[in-house]
Amino acid sequence: MLAKIEMLKKGVLMSIQDKGRSKHASIGVPRAGYVDTKEAVKLNTLLGNKKSAAVLEWSMLGPKLKFPKPTYIAISQHTVGSSLNGTNIRTREKIFVPADSVLKLGTSREKMYQYVAIKDGFKTENVLSSQSHLVGYLDSENMELKYVPIIEDAFNLSRPSFQLPSLGSNNLVRSMEALPGPEFDLLPKSILDALSNYFTLSNRRDRMGIQFNELVANDLPSMLSVPIIPGTIQLTPGGKMILLGKDCQTTGGYPRILWLPEDALAKLYQLPVGVKFKLKISSQ
Q1: Residue 227, Cα to own-chain centre: how many angstroms?
Q2: For the range 38-43, what are the long-range contacts, defined as Cβ-Cβ under 8 Å and sequence gap of 24 or more?
Q3: Superfamily of domain 169-281
Q4: How do residues 79-119 score in pLDDT, each as one tens digit?
Q5: How far is Cα 158 from Cα 181, in angstroms, rounded to an integer?
Q6: Which of 49, 114, 205, 278 is the most buried (most CB within 10 A)?
Q7: Where are the domains of the chain?
Q8: In 10 A of CB 217, how many CB atoms?
Q9: Nearest alpha carbon to residue 199 among 175, 169, 179, 220
Q10: First CA to last CA distance, the chain
Protein backbone atom coordinates (compact mmCIF):
# COMPACT_ATOMS: atom_id res chain seq x y z
CA MET A 1 0.00 0.00 0.00
CA LEU A 2 1.24 3.48 -0.86
CA ALA A 3 2.09 6.03 1.82
CA LYS A 4 1.18 9.70 1.41
CA ILE A 5 3.59 12.51 2.29
CA GLU A 6 2.21 15.42 4.29
CA MET A 7 3.16 18.85 2.94
CA LEU A 8 4.11 21.03 5.92
CA LYS A 9 5.55 23.84 3.82
CA LYS A 10 5.60 24.33 0.08
CA GLY A 11 8.85 24.82 -1.86
CA VAL A 12 9.41 27.43 -4.57
CA LEU A 13 8.42 26.47 -8.14
CA MET A 14 7.94 22.89 -7.04
CA SER A 15 6.89 20.12 -9.41
CA ILE A 16 7.18 16.39 -10.06
CA GLN A 17 9.45 15.56 -12.99
CA ASP A 18 10.71 12.46 -14.75
CA LYS A 19 12.26 12.00 -18.21
CA GLY A 20 9.36 13.92 -19.78
CA ARG A 21 7.06 13.20 -22.70
CA SER A 22 8.11 12.36 -26.23
CA LYS A 23 6.21 11.91 -29.50
CA HIS A 24 3.39 14.25 -28.51
CA ALA A 25 4.60 17.58 -29.95
CA SER A 26 2.29 17.10 -32.95
CA ILE A 27 -0.71 17.62 -30.65
CA GLY A 28 0.87 20.58 -28.84
CA VAL A 29 2.05 18.81 -25.68
CA PRO A 30 5.36 20.15 -24.27
CA ARG A 31 8.14 17.71 -23.48
CA ALA A 32 8.65 18.74 -19.81
CA GLY A 33 11.03 16.59 -17.72
CA TYR A 34 14.02 17.22 -15.44
CA VAL A 35 15.72 20.60 -15.88
CA ASP A 36 19.02 18.98 -14.85
CA THR A 37 18.87 15.40 -16.11
CA LYS A 38 22.36 14.45 -14.92
CA GLU A 39 21.65 15.45 -11.31
CA ALA A 40 18.29 13.68 -11.21
CA VAL A 41 19.74 10.50 -12.73
CA LYS A 42 22.59 10.49 -10.19
CA LEU A 43 20.14 10.57 -7.30
CA ASN A 44 18.00 7.82 -8.79
CA THR A 45 21.10 5.70 -9.34
CA LEU A 46 22.12 6.13 -5.68
CA LEU A 47 18.78 4.65 -4.64
CA GLY A 48 18.80 1.83 -7.16
CA ASN A 49 15.87 3.39 -9.04
CA LYS A 50 15.27 3.45 -12.75
CA LYS A 51 17.13 6.43 -14.22
CA SER A 52 13.81 7.87 -15.35
CA ALA A 53 12.06 7.63 -11.95
CA ALA A 54 9.99 10.62 -10.85
CA VAL A 55 11.69 13.10 -8.48
CA LEU A 56 10.60 16.26 -6.71
CA GLU A 57 12.08 19.42 -8.25
CA TRP A 58 12.14 22.93 -6.78
CA SER A 59 14.02 26.20 -7.14
CA MET A 60 15.95 28.25 -4.56
CA LEU A 61 14.05 27.16 -1.43
CA GLY A 62 12.86 23.64 -0.72
CA PRO A 63 9.72 22.33 0.99
CA LYS A 64 9.15 20.76 4.41
CA LEU A 65 7.74 17.23 4.21
CA LYS A 66 6.54 14.59 6.69
CA PHE A 67 6.93 10.89 5.84
CA PRO A 68 4.43 8.58 7.60
CA LYS A 69 6.30 5.38 6.66
CA PRO A 70 10.03 4.52 6.33
CA THR A 71 11.88 4.95 3.05
CA TYR A 72 15.21 6.05 1.56
CA ILE A 73 15.90 9.41 -0.09
CA ALA A 74 18.76 11.29 -1.75
CA ILE A 75 19.02 15.06 -2.20
CA SER A 76 20.94 17.04 -4.79
CA GLN A 77 24.50 18.23 -4.34
CA HIS A 78 23.92 21.96 -4.05
CA THR A 79 21.13 21.88 -1.48
CA VAL A 80 22.43 23.61 1.65
CA GLY A 81 20.96 23.42 5.16
CA SER A 82 18.72 20.39 4.70
CA SER A 83 17.80 18.41 7.81
CA LEU A 84 15.99 15.24 8.82
CA ASN A 85 14.26 15.42 12.21
CA GLY A 86 16.39 18.46 13.04
CA THR A 87 19.74 16.83 12.13
CA ASN A 88 21.67 18.10 9.12
CA ILE A 89 22.08 15.57 6.33
CA ARG A 90 24.56 15.18 3.52
CA THR A 91 23.84 15.53 -0.16
CA ARG A 92 24.19 12.81 -2.80
CA GLU A 93 23.93 10.01 -0.26
CA LYS A 94 21.39 7.27 0.38
CA ILE A 95 19.61 8.43 3.53
CA PHE A 96 17.29 6.30 5.66
CA VAL A 97 14.06 8.04 6.64
CA PRO A 98 12.27 6.46 9.66
CA ALA A 99 8.49 6.55 10.03
CA ASP A 100 6.99 9.94 11.01
CA SER A 101 10.14 11.80 9.99
CA VAL A 102 10.19 15.46 8.98
CA LEU A 103 12.46 16.46 6.10
CA LYS A 104 13.32 20.12 5.69
CA LEU A 105 14.95 20.85 2.33
CA GLY A 106 17.25 23.84 2.34
CA THR A 107 18.38 26.51 -0.08
CA SER A 108 20.33 26.37 -3.32
CA ARG A 109 23.31 28.69 -3.45
CA GLU A 110 25.05 27.85 -6.71
CA LYS A 111 22.34 26.21 -8.82
CA MET A 112 18.75 27.27 -9.38
CA TYR A 113 17.07 23.85 -9.52
CA GLN A 114 17.34 21.12 -6.89
CA TYR A 115 15.96 17.62 -6.37
CA VAL A 116 14.95 15.00 -3.86
CA ALA A 117 14.64 11.41 -5.06
CA ILE A 118 12.86 8.64 -3.15
CA LYS A 119 13.25 4.86 -3.20
CA ASP A 120 11.30 3.50 -6.23
CA GLY A 121 10.34 7.02 -7.28
CA PHE A 122 7.34 9.20 -6.39
CA LYS A 123 4.02 7.62 -7.35
CA THR A 124 1.85 10.30 -8.93
CA GLU A 125 -0.57 10.37 -11.84
CA ASN A 126 0.84 9.17 -15.17
CA VAL A 127 -0.36 11.13 -18.21
CA LEU A 128 0.83 10.31 -21.74
CA SER A 129 3.55 8.01 -20.38
CA SER A 130 5.01 10.58 -17.98
CA GLN A 131 4.46 11.91 -14.46
CA SER A 132 5.99 15.31 -15.29
CA HIS A 133 3.87 18.32 -14.40
CA LEU A 134 3.13 20.46 -17.43
CA VAL A 135 1.12 23.46 -16.25
CA GLY A 136 1.52 25.29 -12.95
CA TYR A 137 3.19 23.98 -9.84
CA LEU A 138 2.21 21.89 -6.85
CA ASP A 139 0.44 23.57 -3.98
CA SER A 140 -0.33 22.45 -0.46
CA GLU A 141 -4.07 22.14 -1.12
CA ASN A 142 -3.66 19.68 -3.99
CA MET A 143 -0.57 17.82 -2.84
CA GLU A 144 -0.66 14.10 -3.64
CA LEU A 145 2.90 12.83 -3.14
CA LYS A 146 2.84 9.09 -2.63
CA TYR A 147 5.56 6.45 -2.36
CA VAL A 148 6.12 2.76 -1.66
CA PRO A 149 7.31 2.39 1.97
CA ILE A 150 10.07 -0.04 2.88
CA ILE A 151 10.42 -2.42 5.81
CA GLU A 152 11.65 -0.56 8.92
CA ASP A 153 15.43 -0.47 8.98
CA ALA A 154 17.43 0.21 12.13
CA PHE A 155 20.49 1.31 10.16
CA ASN A 156 20.45 5.03 9.52
CA LEU A 157 22.82 6.21 6.81
CA SER A 158 22.48 9.88 7.77
CA ARG A 159 25.69 11.64 8.76
CA PRO A 160 26.38 15.18 9.94
CA SER A 161 26.71 17.57 7.02
CA PHE A 162 29.39 20.10 6.32
CA GLN A 163 28.89 23.42 4.55
CA LEU A 164 30.96 24.15 1.47
CA PRO A 165 32.09 27.76 0.99
CA SER A 166 30.26 29.74 -1.66
CA LEU A 167 32.00 29.85 -5.02
CA GLY A 168 31.08 33.49 -5.52
CA SER A 169 29.16 32.56 -8.66
CA ASN A 170 28.35 36.14 -9.61
CA ASN A 171 32.02 36.62 -10.46
CA LEU A 172 32.36 33.50 -12.59
CA VAL A 173 32.36 33.48 -16.38
CA ARG A 174 31.04 30.36 -18.10
CA SER A 175 31.24 29.15 -21.69
CA MET A 176 28.15 27.37 -23.02
CA GLU A 177 28.13 25.16 -26.09
CA ALA A 178 25.61 26.23 -28.75
CA LEU A 179 24.80 25.01 -32.24
CA PRO A 180 23.41 27.04 -35.17
CA GLY A 181 19.61 27.05 -35.31
CA PRO A 182 17.48 26.74 -38.46
CA GLU A 183 17.47 30.53 -39.06
CA PHE A 184 21.13 31.06 -38.12
CA ASP A 185 22.11 31.66 -41.76
CA LEU A 186 19.82 34.71 -41.86
CA LEU A 187 21.98 36.54 -39.32
CA PRO A 188 24.11 39.45 -40.63
CA LYS A 189 27.65 40.03 -39.40
CA SER A 190 26.48 42.66 -36.89
CA ILE A 191 24.38 40.08 -35.06
CA LEU A 192 27.08 37.41 -35.28
CA ASP A 193 29.48 39.91 -33.66
CA ALA A 194 26.93 40.66 -30.94
CA LEU A 195 26.59 36.94 -30.17
CA SER A 196 30.28 36.84 -29.21
CA ASN A 197 29.65 39.21 -26.27
CA TYR A 198 28.95 38.26 -22.65
CA PHE A 199 25.36 37.65 -21.59
CA THR A 200 23.51 37.39 -18.28
CA LEU A 201 20.17 35.78 -17.44
CA SER A 202 17.11 37.83 -16.57
CA ASN A 203 14.99 37.17 -13.50
CA ARG A 204 12.10 36.63 -15.94
CA ARG A 205 12.42 32.87 -15.97
CA ASP A 206 10.46 29.69 -15.41
CA ARG A 207 10.42 26.17 -16.82
CA MET A 208 9.02 27.48 -20.11
CA GLY A 209 11.92 29.82 -20.84
CA ILE A 210 14.45 32.43 -19.73
CA GLN A 211 15.09 35.86 -21.21
CA PHE A 212 18.61 37.24 -21.56
CA ASN A 213 19.21 40.72 -20.15
CA GLU A 214 21.17 42.01 -23.12
CA LEU A 215 19.36 43.06 -26.31
CA VAL A 216 20.53 42.19 -29.84
CA ALA A 217 19.26 44.74 -32.36
CA ASN A 218 17.97 43.18 -35.56
CA ASP A 219 15.65 43.61 -38.53
CA LEU A 220 15.05 39.96 -39.29
CA PRO A 221 11.89 39.26 -41.32
CA SER A 222 8.75 37.97 -39.63
CA MET A 223 7.96 34.29 -40.08
CA LEU A 224 5.15 31.81 -39.68
CA SER A 225 4.99 29.59 -36.61
CA VAL A 226 7.38 26.65 -36.83
CA PRO A 227 8.25 23.68 -34.59
CA ILE A 228 10.45 24.44 -31.57
CA ILE A 229 12.07 22.24 -28.93
CA PRO A 230 13.76 22.77 -25.54
CA GLY A 231 17.19 24.37 -25.92
CA THR A 232 16.11 26.64 -28.78
CA ILE A 233 17.21 30.29 -28.53
CA GLN A 234 14.77 32.66 -30.22
CA LEU A 235 15.45 36.28 -31.22
CA THR A 236 12.47 38.64 -31.05
CA PRO A 237 12.00 41.76 -33.23
CA GLY A 238 12.62 43.84 -30.12
CA GLY A 239 16.05 42.25 -29.68
CA LYS A 240 15.25 39.90 -26.79
CA MET A 241 16.91 36.50 -26.76
CA ILE A 242 14.75 33.77 -25.21
CA LEU A 243 16.08 30.36 -24.19
CA LEU A 244 13.28 27.78 -24.29
CA GLY A 245 13.08 25.36 -21.36
CA LYS A 246 11.63 21.89 -20.80
CA ASP A 247 8.02 23.17 -20.58
CA CYS A 248 8.20 25.31 -23.72
CA GLN A 249 5.40 25.36 -26.28
CA THR A 250 5.76 23.19 -29.38
CA THR A 251 5.55 25.97 -32.00
CA GLY A 252 6.76 29.57 -32.18
CA GLY A 253 7.09 32.46 -34.61
CA TYR A 254 10.48 33.98 -33.73
CA PRO A 255 13.70 33.09 -35.60
CA ARG A 256 15.46 30.08 -34.04
CA ILE A 257 19.00 31.39 -34.16
CA LEU A 258 20.72 28.89 -31.84
CA TRP A 259 20.16 25.57 -30.11
CA LEU A 260 21.69 24.29 -26.86
CA PRO A 261 22.29 20.53 -26.41
CA GLU A 262 20.84 18.85 -23.29
CA ASP A 263 23.93 19.33 -21.09
CA ALA A 264 24.37 22.98 -22.04
CA LEU A 265 20.67 23.68 -21.49
CA ALA A 266 20.85 22.22 -17.98
CA LYS A 267 24.01 24.18 -17.12
CA LEU A 268 22.57 27.47 -18.33
CA TYR A 269 19.24 26.88 -16.57
CA GLN A 270 21.12 26.22 -13.33
CA LEU A 271 22.97 29.57 -13.42
CA PRO A 272 21.78 32.20 -10.93
CA VAL A 273 20.91 35.72 -12.05
CA GLY A 274 23.99 37.84 -12.71
CA VAL A 275 26.47 35.16 -13.80
CA LYS A 276 28.25 36.13 -17.01
CA PHE A 277 28.51 33.60 -19.81
CA LYS A 278 29.49 33.32 -23.46
CA LEU A 279 27.93 31.20 -26.17
CA LYS A 280 30.51 29.02 -27.89
CA ILE A 281 28.93 28.44 -31.29
CA SER A 282 30.03 25.27 -33.00
CA SER A 283 29.16 24.05 -36.50
CA GLN A 284 29.30 20.38 -35.37
Answers
A1: 22
A2: 38/263, 38/266, 39/76, 39/77, 39/115, 39/266, 40/115, 40/117, 42/92, 43/74, 43/75, 43/76, 43/92, 43/115, 43/116, 43/117
A3: Cyclophilin-like (2.40.100.10)
A4: 788 999 999 998 889 999 999 999 999 887 778 999 999 99
A5: 46
A6: 114
A7: 3-147, 169-281
A8: 9
A9: 175
A10: 50
